[in-house]
């Protein structure tokens, strides 16, 4: 909202785009996330909108990529299960760096319903990120994965040098979309 406000004050041509992205994100969170599982294509669309909305705060300070591959629309996923990782990538990259930011997100599927999610982002370990929340979102997503995908997920998190890396494998189920 703060970004939207500043763009509106500047009468930036980006303001309508920000409003559309924010509207899509809010609509998804308010209406589509009421179910235990949602259509994978809706979750991916939400992730793209969320990424594009947050990318605007980086502007020319870095690069954001979001790639999908072989997404099968017949599968369902727990809503917002992947958002935490992307949200953390933006939060820690933008809080710790004023330039050379990178955030790379890849989502792909195999032919048997296996979802492969990767999120890699830059960050500087000694910065103002100490004041950010202490990983409550990460704790919650780990609990959700245990509850919703017992023995059907693998989560690997690596924090080395100036790169934070998340790799999540989920076995999805088919359902009505």
From TrEMBL:
GO terms for cellular component: membrane. Keywords: Kinase, Transferase. Coiled coil: none annotated. It holds the Pfam family His_kinase. InterPro entries: Bact_2-comp_sensor_kinase (IPR050640), HATPase_C_sf (IPR036890), Sig_transdc_His_kin_internal (IPR010559). The keyword Nuclease does not apply. Residues 1-61 form the Signal transduction histidine kinase internal region domain. GO terms for molecular function: phosphorelay sensor kinase activity. This is Histidine kinase. It comes from Maribacter arcticus. The lineage of its organism: Bacteria, Pseudomonadati, Bacteroidota, Flavobacteriia, Flavobacteriales.
């Amino acid at each position: 909202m703060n970004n939207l406000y500043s763009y509106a004050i500047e009468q930036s041509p980006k303001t309508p785009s920000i409003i559309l992205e924010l509207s899509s994100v809010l609509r998804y969170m308010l209406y589509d996330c009421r179910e235990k599982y949602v259509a994978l294509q809706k979750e991916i669309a939400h992730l793209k909108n969320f990424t594009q909305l947050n990318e605007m705060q980086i502007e020319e300070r870095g690069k954001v990529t979001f790639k999908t591959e072989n997404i099968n629309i017949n599968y369902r996923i727990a809503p917002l299960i992947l958002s935490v990782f992307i949200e953390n990538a933006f939060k820690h990259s933008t809080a710790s760096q004023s330039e050379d930011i990178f955030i790379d997100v890849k989502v792909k599927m195999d032919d048997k319903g296996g979802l492969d999610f990767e999120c890699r982002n830059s960050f500087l370990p000694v910065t103002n990120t100490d004041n950010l929340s202490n990983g409550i979102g990460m704790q919650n997503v780990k609990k959700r994965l245990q509850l919703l995908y017992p023995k059907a997920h693998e989560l690997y998190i690596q924090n080395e040098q100036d790169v934070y890396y998340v790799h999540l494998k989920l076995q999805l189920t088919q359902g009505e979309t």
